[in-house]
């Protein structure tokens, strides 16, 4: 988190907050204290750079000043960092931008609790003591088709006191009480729904039983794919086979969290393109890391001679999923793909 302070009082308040929160503090040259960083060029220029580098920006300043400096930088709620503003006496902490997905509302409450201040939060779901779909999605690291419109629709239904059901697939049901679901109607059985206006389903599945009410599928990013392939395999081939493997195991493509392979493949064009197009991490494992789990799987002497370990996709998937592999390994056209489900939640 980056913190910006513009006055002596702001610097003093920043010192208090640094004791309990992981903050990188910026101020002007004339107010510089040990551990603070001077503005690079100007206050506005420093904010511009920080806007894309930090997940949260905290300002000890007038709200108007903050609005003016961030106005040219604001993009959309899916990508903007949390922005929180407070006065230099620490009496009010305001959630200004990205309250739900960015976490500004939660950060506002945390900072206000530290200071004994008044948290100022204006999002409709929060002021009505309700959960929000985008907050739930962020907590689950989940997404859905047409995310922006779905969030708008469901949150509006909640604050309008319409009946929105929430169903958890079996692998998530045990931990459902960890999440804020205020305002949602619990649903235990998709075949016997209570009276509802819409239904949100938390699941990895690619298909659910059809319903007579609007259904919104919230898909946690839990599926990982260990991939091995011949050098210079056509990118379309790898992408197509991955889709085939996801479908064979009835996973929604949105559930894919990461792909992984051996270090020799860290510059493999097909894998780099796949990670880029899916906007997911490409995790690299050394031969030694994979070799520790090689004994669990059938080995190929050709693969061993080529990359130094007898199996790539299976131990990579094993490491990414903590041993929770799913289905059979796909072996086609010089490509191997093994899926796993991460226990990350």
Task: Write a structural description.
InterPro entries: CbiG_hydrolase, CbiG_mid, CbiG_N, CobE/GbiG_C, CobE/GbiG_C_sf, GbiG_N_sf. Residues 46-126 form the Cobalamin synthesis G N-terminal domain. Helix content is 33%, strand content 24%. It has a 7-stranded mixed sheet, sandwiched between helices. A 5-stranded mixed sheet has the order 8-12-11-9-10. Strands 15-14-13-17-16 form a 5-stranded mixed sheet. The longest helix is centred in the last third of the chain and has 14 residues, at 235-248. It is of the alpha/beta class. A hairpin with a 2-residue loop joins strand 16 (325-332) and strand 17 (335-341). It contains 13 helices and 17 strands. The chain has 3 domains: 2-122, 3-Layer(aba) Sandwich (Rossmann fold), CATH 3.40.50.11220; 133-220, Udp-n-acetylmuramoylalanyl-d-glutamate--2,6- Diaminopimelate Ligase, Chain: A, domain 1 (3-Layer(aba) Sandwich); 223-341, CobE/GbiG C-terminal domain (Nucleotidyltransferase, domain 5, 2-Layer Sandwich), CATH 3.30.420.180.
